[in-house]
Every structure is written in structure tokens, then in C-alpha cells.
Write a structure and sequence with these properties.
- Helix content is 71%, strand content 0%.
- α1 runs antiparallel to α2.
- It is mainly alpha-helical.
């Protein structure tokens, strides 16, 4: 397995945000009959678009000579963050086999927590970065927003 590069980690973060946006849009549509839940998912979808743009800025800042992160294996990196558990088998789409708003909110909370951990690991590999820290903090706010919505569901 190839070593994970900083660029690769950030590109994976871009893909995660793109996938999260599609996931939240599907949930907003699926739970449209519960407007307060749909509103939360719609807001999160919009924020994922902004996060994607921020990660793309970080990717653009990476040196073309990015040589990789010593001792990091791509699959080990993913397993460490447990982010793969949220994806459908053999797919880039998030699992959305959810029948209730409560299940959807719980899955979204788990996904946001894991995404936050993933971004913290990316930051460990890239070093301190104000923009990346803002994204980590935003993921924590998403968990808070979703937790509040769950308490009302």
C-alpha cells in the first residue's frame, strides 16, 4: 500500500465533504415531513460545500513535491479514523439505510464525530494550520447542532 501523502489526506477530506453534502441533501429530502429535522440537514449540506472549498484551498497550498507521510499507510489511516464504516460497500456514498429521523440524526452525529477525528489526524500529519483547526471546530459545532436536534426528535 502506498504511503499516505499530505495531499492525499486533504483530497480525501475534500471527497468526504462532497459525500457528506450529498448525504445531508438526501436526508433533508427524505425527512421533509419533519421540517425541523430537514432544516438541520439542509443547513449541514450547505456547510459541507463551504468546507469542501476550504479543503481545496489547503490542497492548493501543498507543495507539488509532497513526498508522503512517513510510517502512514492509507488503509491504516482510514481504519484509525473509522470513517469507512459510514460508506456503502464498494461505494463512495454514505450508508443511508435509515427509516426514522432519530436514526438519521444518530448516524449524522456519529459521522460528524468521526469526521472531526479524521480531520484531527490530518492536522497531526500536516502540522498546525488555522484553517484546518477552524474546520475541526466546525465539525464539533455540527455535533452540537445535531445533538440538540436529536433531543427534540
Amino acid at each position: 500500500m502506498d504511503a499516505l501523502t499530505v495531499r492525499g489526506a486533504l483530497e480525501l477530506a475534500v471527497m468526504t465533504e462532497q459525500t457528506g453534502e450529498r448525504f445531508y441533501r438526501r436526508l433533508a429530502s427524505r425527512f421533509a415531513q419533519t421540517p425541523e429535522v430537514a432544516k438541520v440537514f439542509d443547513m449541514l449540506a450547505k456547510e459541507e460545500v463551504g468546507h469542501e472549498a476550504q479543503f481545496k484551498k489547503l490542497v492548493a497550498q501543498i507543495d507539488a513535491e509532497d513526498r508522503g507521510i512517513p510510517n502512514y499507510d492509507y488503509q491504516a489511516f482510514l481504519k484509525a479514523t473509522a470513517i469507512t464504516e459510514f460508506f456503502k460497500p464498494n461505494s463512495e456514498e454514505l450508508r443511508d439505510d435509515l427509516s426514522t429521523a432519530k436514526e438519521a440524526l444518530e448516524r449524522a452525529i456519529a459521522f460528524e464525530k468521526t469526521t472531526k477525528e479524521f480531520y484531527e489526524k490530518v492536522m497531526e500529519t500536516t502540522g498546525p494550520n488555522k484553517l484546518l483547526q477552524e474546520l475541526v471546530d466546525e465539525e464539533a459545532r455540527h455535533v452540537e447542532t445535531l445533538t440538540k436536534a436529536l433531543s427534540k426528535a
